[in-house]
Amino acid sequence: MIPTCFHTLYRCFCIPVFVLLLIVSTCVFSSEAETLREEFDTLLIRNLSGQELDSDEFVALRDFYNERNYQPVWVRSGQPAPQFSTALAFIATAEDHGLERKDYALDQLIQLFSDYTPEKIYALELQTTRSLLRFMRDLYRGRYTAIETDPDWHIPQPDFDAVKFLLKALDSSNLQQSLDSLVTTNPNYQLLKSALFKFRDLVARQVTWIQLPNLPLLKPGDVHPMMPHIRERIAQAYETHGLPEYNLISGSDNTRHARYDNALVSAVRAFQRQHGLNADGIIGPNTVEAMNRTPAEKLQQLRINLERLRWLPRDLGERYLLVNIAGFQLTAIENGQYIFDMRIIVGREYRSTPSFHSRITHMILNPYWNIPASIARKDLLPKQQRDPAYFTAQNIRVYEDYTYRSTPIDPETVNWNAIKSGFPYALRQEPGKQNALGAIKFMLPNSYSIYLHDTPSKSLFNKDIRTFSSGCIRLEAPLLLADFALYGRISPEALKQQIDSGITKQINLSEPLPVYIVYLTTWIDSGQNIHYSRDIYGRDERALNLARQ
Fold first, then answer.
1. Comparing 13-17, 292-296, 505-509, which segment has the lowest mean pLDDT?
2. Closest-CA residue to 330 (of 191, 523, 471, 195)
3. Which of the 8 DSSP states describes residue 417?
4. Number of helices and strands (H, E) in the chain?
5. What separation in angstroms does the CA of 98 have from each of 26, 467, 474?
């Protein structure tokens, strides 16, 4: 039992002391806020001197502290607050995403924290906010402006208000959870991020791979003195990726002999598949070039492709198509699961396919090909000039204009050799086996006159570098895509019957199907295997050059 006199002492002494401590603490906190309010511009210049602070960042910092009545976040009563550790640890993950720590002054922050003194209170406070706002923005929508980095990228970057997000996150019960939600859930992103970790380690340990010289075409069964080196390169690929096909038997004569045997052929085919090449087992210049890419080059490749994935909208839809130009691959995705993928053919380098987003609204069975004037002039006219029967043989009709309402003109009545500039006619190819669009085309509104379509030239899908079109996307398995787009409305058998009828028919989709045409030189297939491809349009190189500036 506590005597009454102690209760009296408690009331007379302890409670006033508690109130006094509260007042002192509040005064210290308010004093810090008042200093921030009165000397904000001076403090920014003094504590962030020597760093690039653009006008947008200045406005963002002012808006952030104004909303908080200039109350500090990361320091309290002259000491780093618990939330500072959360912010610092989050910023320290920048390199895990292929971003650079120097862009977020991470080393300066660590140094400020390690050598912390009360005099550095505002330096730590302002630098933490500035670094965190920048990293949040870059993680959510990309470090660079997409259209400046890649002028052929026409998919709008996500909108993101870093100040609004951080204010809301600080008001939440879990700052860490809020910050973690900034990372995209795109399955491509998560798996590329895992690969990035491996290659960062390889580069940090200065691991090198076998470099092969120029070689003649090597076919299964051939004998060549470089075979042991090729086996060693495959062994290095096994150490990196762990694919069972790369696991050649070691410690035996097989690793040293010069014959291109079946085990090595299987391993080379797996390597070709992983690097976007035709898996024919023939070691040619494209295979050698892929084997000679260094860990540092692949690290850079992963970094720029993670950046491109950050440029994509966060909500791609429940069902959509990801068309990878650089990987010559189309993937159908539903509820986050990869349903199927197929090979594609894309535009030639001088008619490169751009990156853009649209939706397939309808498909046309047994389509006509309304031939663009540029193709008619540059590609088809020279063929007709060399062979006067070419248009007739290819079932191409000649019209006065693009209304196609006039009676077709007999090609034999035109002096094609007299056309020196421009093209005064309109060409249209009739439906049929020779039609360049094949049996079906998929229409998606866009300003580039690009669509997806079948093709009669199936052999081209066996080429390593499939840049043969005039910009449109040719499909390896158009009926598979039609079944996915129609969502079971028409059976594959019924669709095939309609195609076999030869009648041109338009089928509207009950729900348009989103399509994202992108340029990824590293990507994940439906089996969650990572792939690499060549920078066919030089867009990786252009982006990396900008990043180095």
1. 13-17
2. 523
3. G
4. 21, 16
5. 42, 29, 33
Highest mean pLDDT among 6-15, 183-192, 287-296, 525-534: 287-296
- CA atoms of 464 and 351, how far apart (whole Å): 18
Please, what's the b/e burial string for 62-80 (b: 16 or more CB within 10 A of its CB; e: otherwise)? Answer: eebbeeeebebbbbbbeeb
SS3 382: helix
Q: How many CB atoms lie within 10 A of CB 466?
A: 20
Query: Quick one: which of 525, 491, 535, 482 has its CA closest to 152?
Result: 535
d(CA 512, CA 358): 9
Q: What length does the chain have?
A: 549
Active site residues: 453, 472
For 483-536, write each residue's pLDDT tens digit.
999 998 999 999 999 999 999 999 999 999 999 999 999 998 888 889 999 999
Q: Which letter does DSSP use for residue 387 in this model? A: -
Angle between helix axes 295-311 and 187-204 (nearest 10 degrees) is 150
Label residues 307-342 b or e (16+ Cβ within 10 Å = b). bbbbbbbeebbebbbbbbbbbbbbbbbeeeebeebb
Secondary structure letter of residue 433 according to DSSP: T
Enumerate the β-bridge partners of residue 218.
Answer: 283
Q: Please state, in angstroms and rounded to a whole number, the distance separating the CA atoms of residues 522 and 505.
A: 38
Q: Are 348 and 467 in contact (CB under 8 A)?
A: yes
Report which residue type is found at 180.
D
The two three-digit tokens of residue 69, written as one number: 């009545």
Q: How many CB atoms lie within 10 A of CB 258?
A: 12
What's the one-letter identity of residue 16? P
Longest dimension (CA), the chain: 122
Concatenating the DSSP letter of every residue in 101-147 gives GGGGTHHHHHHHHHT--GGGHHHHHHHHHHHHHHHHHHHHH-SS-HH
Distances 238 to 5, 226, 275, 288 between C-alpha atoms, Å: 80, 19, 14, 17
Q: What is the pLDDT of residue 303?
A: 96
b/e map 193-221, b = 16+ CB within 10 Å? bebbebbbebbeeeeebbebeeeeebebe
Strand (E) or helix (H) holding 167: helix 162-171
Beta bridge partners of 35: none
Q: C-alpha distances in angstroms, 418 versus 382, 401, 423?
A: 12, 19, 11
DSSP string covering 63-82: HHHHHTTT--SSEETTEE-H
Contact present, 460 and 466 (Cβ < 8 Å)? yes
Whole-angstrom distance, CA of residue 125 vs CA of residue 73: 7
Q: What are phi and psi of 275, to 5 degrees?
A: -110, 25
